[in-house]
Design a protein that fits this description.
5-stranded parallel sheet; about 30% helix; Rossmann fold; binds uridine-5'-diphosphate; globular
């Protein structure tokens, strides 16, 4: 065998595994079906701005080891995610904090806000059974109607009553004037873009782009002892038990000849009529400046549209409802029986992983495997 490991997919999971394996003296090869490295964290320079082609990724973590790990490869800036919601022209601060409650109800103290929410949450009896009940029990019906329902139903294409509760628990609810979108200890954007992070991780590692492993399985299985597969688990098994559902997103990007379009990196459109879920203005992830600290005269914006995944689309978000999770478990049984093939990452494990969690999971796997 020529290689110890063949890694399928050049996203974060694959890149971390490749780096760690190479550092242990293993011979590794990465094959990637797209024409670029870095998976969905891929960035591309347009008008001096690092554009996140597959949507916004803000690195955040509580895990010091993971933070130190990524900082070995690239510097991170001090970006803090402070998105806002635009509901029919009204601007609300996200996540749900005293700024949001003040705008929604005019209240100025935590006691007033808590009183309103505790009144509104009374409509939910017992343990919340779905995203709608969970949202109302966290922040009440007014916020649910204006800031959650429209956005969530556009993003997921499903009624909030049909979605799992964990999705809305991703967002903090705070009775303080703190509008940092995350609770994480560490947060930032890779200076120069995430492509640079992955490129630096892959130093000295052989990568073949435009190579679809699933179409050349026989050949690629013959070149390595073991395979790390980070593509969609159902695709690996040729969808033989049925297709798992994913959401995919599509972007309409424009270069505008103005320096500032919306004054924020991310603005969510939370009504149900606006067809896009959010608008990304990429320059604000790096404070509107190029790498030399010069103000950029133009701006690049991307409108994000969400839809159900079809076979020709890139899968983005696993739909982790009961039906799909139970199908995934059946695929996982098959995966566990495969000899010398290991499944990892958002698609390989059908899991709504954040970047730091993917890296953590890859590093944990490396500890066992290498
Ligand atoms: N969400 C919402 N309104 C918003 C932003 C988020 O209702 O303005 C809900 C929505 O259901 C979303 C979930 O919160 O799927 C988690 O949001 P997050 O920003 O974590 O999603 P991601 O960054 O993964 O797209």
């Amino acid at each position: 065998m020529k290689y110890d490991y063949l890694i399928v997919g050049c996203g974060l999971y694959g890149a971390v595994f490749a780096r760690q394996a190479a550092d242990k003296g293993k011979k590794v090869l990465i094959v990637e079906k797209r024409n670029h490295i870095a998976g969905n964290v891929y960035t591309e320079k347009v008008e001096g701005i690092n554009v996140q082609k597959y949507g916004p990724h803000i690195f955040h973590t509580n895990n010091k080891q993971v933070w130190n790990y990524v900082n070995k490869f690239v510097e991170f800036n001090r970006f803090t995610n402070l998105p806002v919601a635009n509901y029919k022209g009204e601007i609300y601060s996200l996540p749900f904090s005293m700024f949001t409650f003040n705008k929604m109800w005019g209240c100025t103290t935590p006691q007033e806000a808590e009183k309103i929410i505790s009144e509104q949450r009374k409509e939910v009896q017992g343990v919340p059974k779905n995203l709608e009940e969970q949202a109302i029990s966290l922040v009440g019906r007014d916020i649910f109607e204006k800031l959650i329902k429209g956005y969530t139903e556009k993003q997921w294409g499903r009624d909030c009553k049909e979605l799992p509760t964990f999705i809305i628990k991703r967002l903090p609810v705070r009775f303080v004037y703190d509008n940092n979108y995350y609770n994480a200890l560490y947060q930032g954007i890779a200076v120069g873009g995430y492509t640079k992070l992955v490129k630096n991780m892959l130093d000295g590692i052989e990568v073949r782009l435009n190579e679809d492993y699933l179409k050349k399985k026989q050949y690629y299985n013959s070149v390595a002892d073991k395979i790390i597969y980070t593509g969609a688990i159902d695709a690996y098994f040729e969808y033989k038990l049925g297709t798992l559902q994913y959401r995919t997103v599509r972007f309409e990007s424009e270069i505008l000849d103005i320096p500032n379009f919306q004054g924020d990196a991310i603005v969510n459109y939370t009504d149900k009529e606006t067809p896009w879920t959010r608008i990304i203005e990429h320059k604000w992830f790096e404070f509107g400046k190029d790498e030399n600290g010069n103000e950029l005269p133009k701006t690049v914006i991307s409108k994000e549209f969400s839809k159900e995944w079809n076979i020709e689309d890139e899968p983005y978000y696993p739909v982790n409802d009961e039906k799909n999770n139970s199908l995934y478990l059946k695929y996982k049984e098959l995966a566990d029986k495969e000899q010398n093939v290991y499944f990892g990452g958002r698609l390989g494990e059908y899991k709504y992983y954040d970047m730091d969690a993917v890296i953590e999971s890859a590093l944990n796997f490396c500890k066992k495997e290498l």
